């Protein structure tokens, strides 16, 4: 059984490693070990159980949402229909819901640790994590749909053009269209 100072060191190092790409999994493992040590030291297994539920929910939700997202992307690329686009949105929603459920269990774990250890920073970190998980949908959605490629005018004209092409009423144009400077150069000279 580790002491609280060893758990503090493990958790601190793990928290720093979480932010380093390709090493972040080691950081997550160190944080889980630190929480396990604190849970054992406080004789409260609910702390560790809530953290394990949070980790499993996050991993399963990310895998399921990623699978749905990839399937939706393939469907959207192959058919250019609303169904594929809904698959993309569904995948993102599955990940978001799993992230919120994971954050709720993490908050329970951190709140219990903060209460039993008398350290208010655990409660603050848990609250910030929950708020970040809940607002993730709005921040990523606004940045995705505010790009000029997904403006309302652009999407409706592309949708109309694809419908006309399927019906054989629109000429088969090159997509994406050539930039203006290449269009001028591609025109035959009228000499």
What is the fold's blueprint, element by element?
Layout lengths: L3 H14 L6 H19 L2 H35 L2 H36 L2 H26 L6 H16 L12 H7 L5
Helix pairs in contact: 1-2, 2-3, 3-4, 4-5
Explain this structure.
The protein is built from seven helices and no strands. The termini are far apart. The protein folds into two domains: about 45 residues; about 100 residues. The longest helix is centred in the middle third of the chain and has 36 residues. The relative contact order is 0.07. α2 packs antiparallel against α3 and α4 packs antiparallel against α5. The chain has about 190 residues and is mostly helical.
**Total count of strands:** 0
Tally of structural domains: 2
Poorly predicted regions are none
* Rg calc: 25 Å
Helix percentage: over 70%
Largest sheet data: none
* Mean pLDDT rating: 79
Percent in strands: under 5%
Provide tags for this entry.
7 helices, 2 domains, elongated, 80% helix
């Amino acid at each position: 059984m580790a002491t609280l100072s060893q758990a503090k060191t493990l958790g601190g190092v793990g928290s720093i490693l979480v932010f380093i790409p390709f090493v972040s999994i080691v950081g997550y493992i160190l944080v889980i070990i630190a929480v396990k040590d604190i849970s054992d030291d406080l004789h409260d297994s609910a702390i560790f159980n809530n953290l394990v539920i949070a980790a499993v929910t996050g991993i399963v939700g990310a895998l399921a949402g990623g699978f749905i997202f990839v399937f939706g992307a393939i469907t959207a690329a192959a058919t250019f229909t609303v169904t594929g686009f809904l698959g993309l949105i569904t995948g993102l929603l599955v990940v978001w819901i799993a992230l919120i459920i994971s954050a709720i269990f993490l908050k329970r774990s951190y709140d219990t640790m903060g209460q039993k250890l008398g350290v208010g920073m655990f409660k603050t970190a848990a609250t910030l994590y929950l708020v970040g998980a809940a607002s993730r949908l709005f921040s990523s959605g606004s940045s995705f749909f505010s790009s000029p490629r997904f403006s309302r005018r652009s999407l409706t004209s592309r949708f109309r053009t694809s419908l006309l092409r399927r019906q054989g009423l629109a000429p088969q144009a090159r997509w994406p269209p050539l930039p203006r400077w290449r269009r001028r150069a591609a025109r035959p000279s009228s000499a």
